Amino acid sequence: MREFPSDVAFTPAVKGIQSDKGSRTGYARMESGGSWETCVTPELEAFLADLDMFYLGTANAEGQPYIQYRGGSPGFLKRVDEKTLGFSDFAGNRQYITLGNLSENSKAFIFLMDYARSQRIKLWGNARVVEDDPALLDRLRDSSYPGKVERAILFEIEAWDVNCPQHIHKRFSQKQIVPVIEDLQGRIAELEAKIIGLESKGQDP
Is-contact 45 75, C-beta < 8 A? Predict the structure, then answer.
């Protein structure tokens, strides 16, 4: 039984290094002040609503880690209940490393990145594969995304934490950039038309 939710990450070995490096006192205050969240809060749900990708970490029975990129329409990682997130698993390269790992080790990790706002959230928990629940698949399905849904993956949260924005380089998705480009193109067209109009009147633009 863990004393604090953050103990899922702050093992005795980690706490020992924190003590050696001088950060244990600050994290001890954090633990006594409430530690990390363990449920899907409105803030986490709002963060998920804008994201179209995340990274999923699993490990096999030997502890060999594996990180997989997951992408979909914004908000495709959804709240199932106060402790659980879920997403559709699409057809891919058919290596099935994540599925194999989860079949023998349910421990999993989700890394959420909002590059545009320089924000990140880390979630520890356990994941499982669901293949025979049509109602769940329909709930997680996104008709606007062309990927073929093969199954669902549910992630039960043990703890999550908002990481600091330090060292995050800003990146923007196509969806975020397109409206800006369209506005600029519209402005350029207006200015070009104005120049043509002035030239046709013999005026210096």
Answer: no
What residues contact residue 129 under an 8 Å CB cut-off, 6+ apart? 89, 99, 102, 103, 151, 152, 153
How far is Cα 146 from Cα 90, in angstroms, rounded to an integer?
9
The 3-state DSSP class for residue 8 equals helix
pLDDT value at residue 199:
79
CA distance 203 to 90: 60
| pTM confidence score | 0.83
CA nearest to 128, candidates 168, 172, 98: 98
Per DSSP, the chain holds a count of helices (H) and strands (E) of: 6, 7
Report the C-alpha gap between 112 and 124 in whole angstroms: 11
